[in-house]
C-alpha cells in the first residue's frame, strides 16, 4: 500500500507536464502567427489523461489503465486547418481560446495535486 501512496500525484504530474508542454506549443503558434509558411502544432494528451483520471479499479487484481507508464504525449503538426495565402495556418482566436482552456486545465490539475497532498497530510498528522 505504501508504494501506491503517491500514485494519484504521479498521474497528475504527467498531466501537468503535458499541459506545460502544450502551453509552450500554443505560445509558439501565437508568436508565429505572421510567419509565412508556418504550420501550427499541438499536443495530444488530454483525452488519454481525462479518461485515466476518471477510471477507478474495484479490486487489487484489476488492470489499472491509469498507470503513469501508459501515458503518451505527442506533439504533432496540424495539417487539417485552412492555410492562408502566405501558407500559414495559425488562427489567433483559436490559439488564444486553446491557451485559455489549457490554463484552466493546468489550474485544475494543480488544485487536485494540492488536494491529494492535503489528504496525505491529514492522514500523517491524524487529523490535527
Tell me the major beta sheet. 2 strands, antiparallel
Helix content: 40-55%
Uncertain segments are 63-68
What's the helix count?
A: 3
Placed side by side, the strands forming the largest sheet appear as: 1-2
Envelope shape:
elongated
This entry's quaternary arrangement is single chain
Report Rg. 19 Å
The tally of structural domains comes to 1
Mean pLDDT equals: 82
What fraction of the residues are assigned to beta strands by DSSP? 5-15%
Sequence-ordered SSE layout with sheet pairings:
Layout: H1 7-31, E1 41-44, H2 46-54, E2 74-77, H3 92-124
Antiparallel strand pairs: 1-2
Helix pairs in contact: 1-3
Overview of the molecule:
This protein is mainly alpha-helical and 128 residues long. The chain has one domain (2-124). It is built from three helices and two strands; from the N terminus they run αβαβα. It has a two-stranded antiparallel sheet with strand order 1-2. Helix 1 runs antiparallel to helix 3 (92-124). The longest helix is centred in the last third of the chain and has 33 residues, at 92-124. The relative contact order is 0.20.
